[in-house]
Every structure is written in C-alpha cells, then in structure tokens.
Specification:
Layout lengths: L1 H21 L2 H13 L7 H15 L2 H13 L4 H15 L4 H21 L1
C-alpha cells in the first residue's frame, strides 16, 4: 500500500516541477489561483478540501482525488466522514463515478495504514 502513496507523491512532485520550470504567466497564475482557492475565507480550509474531493470525484480526476484525500486526512477528517462525502459525490456523479470511488477508497485505505504505522 505504501508504494501506492509514494508513487503518486513522487510522480506529482516531479510533474509539478516540470510544469513550473516551463510555466508561462498563465500557468503560473492558474497554479496560484488553485493554491489560494483552498485558503481560509468565508469557508474554512477543511470545508473547501471536502468540496474539492467531492467535485474531483464527480469530474473523475483520480490525481485530484488523491490530492484532496491527502489534504482531508491531514486536516482531520475521519475515514467515515470522507466516505460519506464520497457517497454524496457518487450520487451526484452517477454510476460512472464508481471506478474512481474504488480507487479513492483504496488510496484512503493506504493513507489510513500509513497513519497507523506512524503511531
């Protein structure tokens, strides 16, 4: 399970570096907008992350789902809360979301295992 986490984290970091190293003004601004979107505002950061997770599931973006799962766990959502949020996404997105839900639950299990091993 740890390979699943490490592979994603390393690949994402490498890809982000390549994008930033080659980014023009538009790409840099999009990255900046993405970052500030999830900062504290009228909604707290934790709420924004669960919204990010559910919308990423509906849009069927596995990389985004993994990113938001990591943030949701980091910000203190319980596994039950995350699963419930993903259930809402599945209802909104329909059965086409089910394969992405499967991968999301697998990733969440790996995150849970990582937390247990750190204790």
């Amino acid at each position: 399970m740890m390979d699943l986490l490490n592979e994603y984290r390393e690949r994402r970091a490498d890809q982000n570096k390549k994008v930033i190293d080659n980014a023009d003004k538009v790409i840099k601004r999009i990255y900046s907008l993405d970052t500030i979107t999830y900062t504290e505002g009228a909604l707290d950061e934790k709420t924004k992350e669960i919204i990010g997770l559910t919308t990423s599931l509906v849009l069927r973006c596995d990389d985004c789902v993994k990113y938001h799962l990591e943030k949701c766990v980091e910000l203190g959502y319980s596994k039950a809360q995350i699963i419930e949020g993903m259930g809402v996404a599945n209802v909104v997105g329909g059965t086409i979301v089910i394969p992405h839900l499967r991968r999301a639950v697998e990733y969440l299990e790996a995150l849970s295992q990582e937390i247990e091993e750190e204790k």
